[in-house]
């Protein structure tokens, strides 16, 4: 191992020319663009994102109880610890105070079920930070969204905890109880004193076997029935407010939209990316042909198209699962999204079509995680074809 | 002495799995359990050593134009022997290794050693090379399998170990786990070697800078200042840039 040691005379040349550059004062720093900098710092942005995630986390705690909060705290703190350890071990500057690791941890917790065992978020955060982020070179150099890397790892590492047919929902002490009564308890036949009941998630109701809601019944009624409740009219409200089973961060669409507004007003995200993502997903759900249980075509391919049902189907797809969470917080990740708005729209559309295809034809009920990871991988291609023409050069 | 170094190089410095990155197919496929990994490794040690010896003994008889087919025939003979023996005495192992035993014939590490070493070197050296490479291969497989079996199945050689209520991370016994563990291991060993090399280079640079005043006093001064600062900070790690400079 000693043979590649530098020959005795060789090291003389290189150090000399570098020495003067290092002594220049800060304002004469020579380098490539960008030269104009806003005063914003990484930690400012990250803590704002954390603030935007606050309503989502709060809704998760309200819906699922304190254990969900414990999972969020565990994920965030273990992400911070993992970042510190890994940066120290790799000889990098330890930068846990910029909050990026904490945000990764919270995002990871947001896409975990509320009843996973305590070590699941810990393992997930470590994988997210170590494999998803630091091995690629740290903040700003990762190709994939670290939180989703962690989530994808956990999905295969602990499948029994992450892919359950019945998901819990805690009803006692829930502030939504006053809004919605105790429909869950009544519906599942448990006495009023139950702490928690298990119900199928909205997408799991749509998914098994046919990947479609029946064509001859109201999709909302079918969904309510499938989830174990007969209050067809209330289903939309429950989906919007978050009183449905699901992952910690994905249930309350209201909270996600609030967080999204915070990001929008700070100009951290451009509205076109989430809209392209969600819009493409819905258009694809509308256009892709699916058969129902009885073997009949559904949606716009049904024998007699009944538009109100199609509208309901689209609403169910919009408000179920993690589509909005992914659209607001995951796909808009500053590091992994394309630079230009044009590129972001292409990127969002591609991801949206993938979500719809996984939901309708795939083996998993939800495809948000994989859709975003897949377009993450394709980002450089999108960047290449969406790069603006440099002023003064020829048109292609 | 030379034999010893031929034997030793396959274990760490030129480890087939982590440094040469040859024979990836079994390294990914049969490392789900330690028993499979060790069984596969034993088969490869036997085939590699025997084929190296035969190929090296007859290396002057093989016409250069068709040497590869000749190697393949020698290798497949020994693979057939191994397979028959396994079927007779360890049918379970044969069952679980399945197609990967016949596939040893086209394993890169075997043909690679035949082409790169046994075809050019005397018999004893080739035998040492085959043994060392085979052992390195076995150790590499076992290293990967150890992590995959313990963390992915909570067992060692099929014996369950208590895990205190933790679920095993079953991703590790599935295909993605093989890629993860193998990739991280390759990275880890490359990092170890690189660090050793950098330390040596830095030491040489420091020595040269301190001994030779040819670049003028300021640089030596600067180096001394750096060194003092570094010692004050109690950092034992050598600085990266210095190593880069010395190699550039």
Q: How many domains in all of chain A?
A: 2
Strand order of the largest sheet of chain B: 1-2
Return the average pLDDT of chain A rounded to an integer.
78
Spell the H/E element sequence of chain A. HHHHHHHEHHEHHHHHHHHHH
Walk me through the structure.
- The complex is a heterodimer of chains A (396) and B (248).
- With 396 residues, chain A is an all-alpha fold.
- Chain A folds into two domains: 43-162, no CATH class; 167-171 and 186-384, no CATH class.
- Helix content of chain A is 56%, strand content 2%.
- Chain A contains 19 helices and two strands.
- Chain A is globular.
- With 248 residues, chain B is an all-alpha fold.
- In chain B, 69% of the residues lie in helices and 2% in strands.
- Chain B has ten helices and two strands; from the N terminus they run αααααααββααα.
- Chain B has a two-stranded antiparallel sheet with strand order 1-2.
- In chain B, β1 and β2 form a beta hairpin.
- The model of chain B is unreliable at 239-248 (pLDDT under 50).
- The chains are: A mainly alpha (396), B mainly alpha (248).
- Chains A and B meet through α1, α5, α6 and α7 of A and α8 and α10 of B.
């Amino acid at each position: 191992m000693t043979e590649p040691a530098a020959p005795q005379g060789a090291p003389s040349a290189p150090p000399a020319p570098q020495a003067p550059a290092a002594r220049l004062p800060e304002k004469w720093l020579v380098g490539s663009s960008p030269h104009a900098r806003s005063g914003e710092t990484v930690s400012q942005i990250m803590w704002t994102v954390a603030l935007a995630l606050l309503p989502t986390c709060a809704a998760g705690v309200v819906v699922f109880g304190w254990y969900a909060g414990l999972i969020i705290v565990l994920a965030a703190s273990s992400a911070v610890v993992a970042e510190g350890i890994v940066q120290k071990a790799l000889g990098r500057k330890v930068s846990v105070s910029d909050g990026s690791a904490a945000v990764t941890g919270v995002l990871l917790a947001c896409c975990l079920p509320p009843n996973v065992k305590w070590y699941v978020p810990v393992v997930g955060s470590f994988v997210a930070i170590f494999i998803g982020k630091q091995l690629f070179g740290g903040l700003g150099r990762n190709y994939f969204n670290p939180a989703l890397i962690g989530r994808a790892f956990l999905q295969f590492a602990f499948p029994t905890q992450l892919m359950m047919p019945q998901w819990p929902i805690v009803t006692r002490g829930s502030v939504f109880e006053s809004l919605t009564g105790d429909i869950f308890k009544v519906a599942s036949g448990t006495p009023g004193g139950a702490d928690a009941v298990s119900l199928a998630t909205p997408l799991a109701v749509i998914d098994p076997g046919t990947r479609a809601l029946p064509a001859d019944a109201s999709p909302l009624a079918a969904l309510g029935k499938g989830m174990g409740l007969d209050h067809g009219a209330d289903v939309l409200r429950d989906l919007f407010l978050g009183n449905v089973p699901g992952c910690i961060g994905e249930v309350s669409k209201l909270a996600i939209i609030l967080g999204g507004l915070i990001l929008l007003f700070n100009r951290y995200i451009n509205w076109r990316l989430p809209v392209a993502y969600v819009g493409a997903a819905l258009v694809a759900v509308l256009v892709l042909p699916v058969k129902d249980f009885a073997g009949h075509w559904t949606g716009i391919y049904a024998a007699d198209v009944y538009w109100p049902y199609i509208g309901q189907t689209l609403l169910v797809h919009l408000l179920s699962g993690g589509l909005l969470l992914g659209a607001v917080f995951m796909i808009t990740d500053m590091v992994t999204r394309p630079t230009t708005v044009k590129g972001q729209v292409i990127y969002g559309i591609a991801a949206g079509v993938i979500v719809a295809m996984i939901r309708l034809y795939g083996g998993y009920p939800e495809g948000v995680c994989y859709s975003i990871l897949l377009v993450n991988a394709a980002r450089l291609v999108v960047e290449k074809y969406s790069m603006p023409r440099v002023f003064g050069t020829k048109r292609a | 002495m030379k034999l010893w170094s031929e034997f030793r190089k396959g274990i760490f410095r030129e480890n087939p799995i982590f440094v040469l990155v040859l024979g990836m197919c079994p390294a990914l496929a049969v490392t789900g359990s330690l028993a499979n990994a060790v069984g596969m490794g034993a088969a490869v040690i036997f085939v590699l050593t025997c084929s190296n010896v035969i190929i090296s003994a007859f290396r002057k008889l093989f016409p250069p134009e068709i040497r590869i087919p000749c190697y393949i025939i020698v290798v497949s003979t020994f693979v057939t022997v191994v397979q028959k023996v396994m079927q007779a005495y360890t049918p379970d192992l044969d069952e679980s290794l399945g197609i990967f035993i016949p596939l040893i014939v086209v394993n890169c590490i075997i043909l690679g050693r035949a082409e790169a070493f046994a075809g050019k070197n005397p018999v004893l050296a080739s035998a040492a090379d085959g043994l060392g490479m085979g052992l390195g291969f076995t150790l590499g497989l076992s290293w990967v399998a150890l992590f995959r079996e313990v963390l992915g199945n909570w067992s060692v050689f099929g014996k369950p170990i208590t895990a205190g209520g933790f679920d095993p991370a079953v991703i590790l016994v599935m295909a993605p786990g093989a890629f993860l563990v193998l990739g991280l291991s390759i990275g880890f060993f490359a990092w170890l070697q690189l660090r050793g090399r950098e330390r040596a280079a830095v030491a040489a640079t420091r020595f040269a800078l301190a001994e030779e005043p040819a670049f003028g006093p300021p640089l030596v001064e600067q180096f001394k200042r750096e060194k003092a600062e570094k010692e004050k900070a109690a950092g034992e790690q050598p600085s990266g840039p210095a190593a880069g400079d010395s190699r550039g």
